[in-house]
Amino acid sequence: MSSELSRPAERRPAGRVASATPSRTVWAMDLIEALRTTGAVRDFLPEPVSDDVVYRLLDTARFAPNGGNRQAWQVVVVQDPATKLALRDLYLPGWYEYLPQMEAGLTPFAAVTDREAEAQAIARAPEIAARAADAPPGFAERFHESPVLLVLLANLRYLATVDRDLGRYTLVGGASIYPFAWNILLAAHEEGLGGVITTMPILREPGVKALLDVPDHVAVAGVLALGYPVKRATRLTRNPVESFATVDRYDGPEFTG
Ligand SMILES: Cc1cc2nc3c(=O)[nH]c(=O)nc-3n(C[C@H](O)[C@H](O)[C@H](O)COP(=O)(O)O)c2cc1C
Q: Does 174 sit in the ligand 1 pocket, CB within 6 Å?
């Protein structure tokens, strides 16, 4: 927060504090601390998350910035176990296509990539799936067990996608949706929850849309999995500022502050 005016008069102390709910401890944290520590959580306790809590997350997330304030997001809170399982089944094929690309040293599904090398890697998906069947189930295989699954949709009629005609991969539309997703994850952290945004199911978008009766002009932007974390990372691995910030030009000197 840059302006004193935007600060709450009294900030809550950072760190662990007792919550109103005796059974749980809630993290009340400083904004900067939250931004630096909200890592992906994929291991959840079996404890359910109440609808009240999920509602609160969405109620906070809706203040996300978005192009023209058209608020193109839509959320399907998936509660039906059969629908959750169907989403898992739509997640898995993409995951088994992702893994061999990683193993081949590719950035999976990169916007600009060697499509031949990618196709060769993806051809190994059945082998990867068979290998996974013999291993203990991971997050992907247990996706449907996530206490909360939120399917995040984007109404394309409300997305001001100013880069849509540039003849390159478009970015701007997503920028009106993903801050909302990030707000959910930040608010979840504050509630003592953890989670992750997933995009693997989008590789099977027609299946997701058919499953949820999503109309043509609405796209799937992700599926958020949330729950009370088994554990939470305290240090996230990210590149230093000098590796991505330069002065005046793309190839200018490193910005070192
Ligand atoms: C746009 C986007 C798509 C992602 N898709 C997936 C996904 O499909 N499955 C998954 O497990 N994690 C997914 N993630 C989570 C990333 O893997 C995670 O943010 C990144 O690896 C950093 O991990 P960390 O927070 O544990 O350091 C996605 C994250 C973003 C922002």
A: no
Using the 8-state DSSP alphabet, how is residue 145 labeled? G
Taking only the tens place, the pLDDT of each residue in 183-233 is 999 999 999 999 999 999 999 999 999 999 999 999 999 999 999 999 998
Which residues form the domain of 208? 3-81+141-230
Ligand 1 lined by 39 (C-beta under 6 Å):
yes
Q: Is 199 in the pocket of ligand 1 (CB under 6 A)?
A: yes
Q: How far apart, in Å, are the Cα atoms of 106 and each of 44, 118, 134?
A: 29, 7, 25
Dihedral sign, Cα of residue 131, residue 135, residue 140, residue 143:
positive
**Ligand 1 center from residue 7 Cα (angstroms):** 30
Strand-pairing partners, residue 167, are none
Structural contact between residues 221 and 178, judged by C-beta atoms closer than 8 angstroms? yes
Residue 27, pLDDT score: 52
Q: Whose CA is nearest to atom 23 of ligand 1?
A: 40
Q: What is the CATH number of the domain that holds 41?
A: 3.40.109.10
pTM for the structure as a whole: 0.90
CA 98 to ligand 1 center in whole angstroms: 12
Domain membership flag for residue 220: yes
Q: Confirm if 163 and 58 have CB atoms less than 8 A apart.
A: no
Total count of domains within the chain: 1
- Distance of CA 189 to CAs 54, 200, 248, Å? 12, 23, 36
Instruction: Please choose from 38, 101, 199 the residue to mutate so as to test ligand 1's pocket, defined by most ligand atoms within 8 A of CB.
Output: 199
Q: Examine residue 124 and state whether it is found in any structural domain, yes or no.
A: no
